[in-house]
Amino acid sequence: MSENTNAAANAASPDTFTAGTAATPSYPGVKDLTLEEKAGLTSGGDAWHLQGVENKGIPGYMITDGPHGLRKSLATDTGDTNLDDSVPATCFPPAAGLASSWNPALAVRVGEAMGEECVQEKVAVILGPGVNIKRNPLGGRCFEYWSEDPYLAGHEAVGIVEGVQSKGVGTSLKHFAANNQETDRLRISARISPRALREIYFPAFEHIVKAAQPWTIMCSYNQINGVHSAQNHWLLTDVLRDEWGFKGIVMSDWGADHDRVASLNAGLNLEMPPSFTDDEIVYAARDGRIQPAQLDRMAQGMIDLVNKARPAMSQNDYRYDVDAHDEVAHQAAVESIVMLKNDDAILPLAADAKVAVIGEFARTPRYQGGGSSHITPTKMTGFLDTLAQRGIDATFAPGFTFADEPQSQALTDEAVAAAKSNDVVLLFLGLPEAAESEGFDRESLDIPAKQIALLEAVAAANENVVVVLSNGSVVSVAPWRDRAKGILESWLLGQAGGPALADVIFGEQSPSGKLAQSIPMSIFDDPTMMNWPGEEGHVDYGEGVFVGYRYYDTYDKPVAYPFGYGLSYATFAIADVAVTKSGANTAHVSATVTNTSDVDGAEVVQVYVAPGKADVARPRHELKGFEKVFLKAGESTTVGFDLDERAFAYWSETFDDWHVEAGEYTVEVGVSSRDIVASGVVALDGDGKAKPLTEWSTYGEWQDDPVGAKIVADMEARGRAGTLPRLPDTDIVRVFLKTLPINSMPMIKSDGGKELTAFLLDEYAKATAR
Ligand code: BGC
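The line above is the sequence of Exo-alpha-(1->6)-L-arabinopyranosidase; the predicted structure tokens follow.
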């Protein structure tokens, strides 16, 4: 393979590019570099480029945002942050939208398109996807994260990584880990239990690393339990590389590396943007604060990355198909829309319905979020534009302005007049751009009060109101939803949101989005609110694993709309649900889905696992599988899911490992976390892990342990036979004993308790030594 090999980017498979230096022996490796050159590779050349070693044939390729399209800054070499000035690129729906598609294959298509745009623009790595958990809907970056559920986030966003990388371009899975808020994001220490990290904050990263090997990972700004991610050896090396087998490089978030030596030792390959302190690495390597092997590993990772990108970066006249990518953005937008309400089947509208379109969002769409992901679209088609293009007549009234200023009576009057003189009102409401962005968290879940006042006025004039929402993260709907017969949650839909909405509203496509985020009745119901957004430099993740529906469903909290929910114009029936044990700790689930209506549509079959009695507090149920099925009117299909051991496990802090307890588990099949259609029970063997018994184990734990139980029985028999002291045999003693560490037995039997403790420990030592 030579630098000029014009490996067709479109045909490139990830495998073609994973070989690194092994497949490209003619390229230099670390052994060919000076100490200074190796040090240089571990920092950028400028804000958006790697630092090459040009005289040795290592180019300084460009890497840039991401994540829902390419943001290639026009002033790339200045290092200045100018978020509004970038080359045109297709603006796909940000993750808040795409996540609602529950369609990983669609994410692959979006990824492929983004990869092709990177090839044209000579960008070696696109900085995304971001798969942090939406811990609290107020989080400023929820619009570019996927879900409150790690299984969903990982199994959808993996498509972006596969798609981009199939074009010979890298991704940067970010922000590893626990960037769940913007407040104090560069300094805050997220105090998280090992269990919550493993069950909630890691799995999306873990799945994507194992399934798709992203070429790069970007560490987060924040600290986790007192250690900045860039300097966290446990995070970047022990977990990411040694446990999960990550083969790529880790880069810092922009400005997240505060100590280059410590970071490099922790496993950070690349500091971005450069602080121009490569000499620190050189000195540290000379005086032994960095071991030569570690510097070689980090620098070789950078060389491998460059080598993987070479074929795609060597294509000089590649041009992507702008219209085809706009079409991908269009379909992605259609599947991002979630229909929350459709009373009286108000939707879809007939093509000749007399419609009033009210709300500035219909004319000036809010189609992406603010901050580093802000891109310049290749096209922009709002809803009003689409109506005009399709020759659909409608009365438009802006209704309100985006500015934070009092409502104008004239705008209200105009909107009410439009509502009165038409049969149906499409009322576009939502969060103005200034209300949510990277860089700050929202303070309220509400949309501006003047928009709700407008809804009241319009609904009083015409009862046929359909609200179309534009927002990057959940907004409260409970206070006003009774005023609308229909509600479409359209998130941020990217550049083709107008045609996508028109398709759904006029029934050319059935809505098929499902919520990737619960919509609570009130933000004060959210389990994280007591610890949001932290204080004095730290935030306690006190809710543990009970994030989102894991909390609402376990503790029976009403929600406005549950996780996984979304309506369609079609109706579906799920039948023949069969749950069978397929191994000691695995199961298989199958179900038949039928479109019982006369319109085409898609349903998302969701599989949740509900553990039985457990040694730790477990959520009532957790998503462990899903599949979106597209069915024509009347059509049927069968879906199947293999649930592996992990689907039943929790992270045990005792074993410092995943643990499946023996016992019964209910496997549920449904269409939202609150709409379980059928379920089956499997009795699993358990993984056999047992905690060693000690003097601090309780009498009850001794009785529950297979080895301990025999020794206890023997001890009690000897007590009855008079060869050992005998414990009093009363109900209250039995109650006390259950929770009594055995070293406290003198509390129960003052004269012989010590002898009994010694007997148990001696016998256990003998039994376990064998
Ligand atoms: C953001 C990253 C982004 C980087 C480069 C940072 O502020 O957190 O997501 O990729 O800037 O723009």
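Note on the example: Residues 292-313 form the longest helix (22 residues). The CA atoms of residues 491 and 741 lie 54 Å apart.
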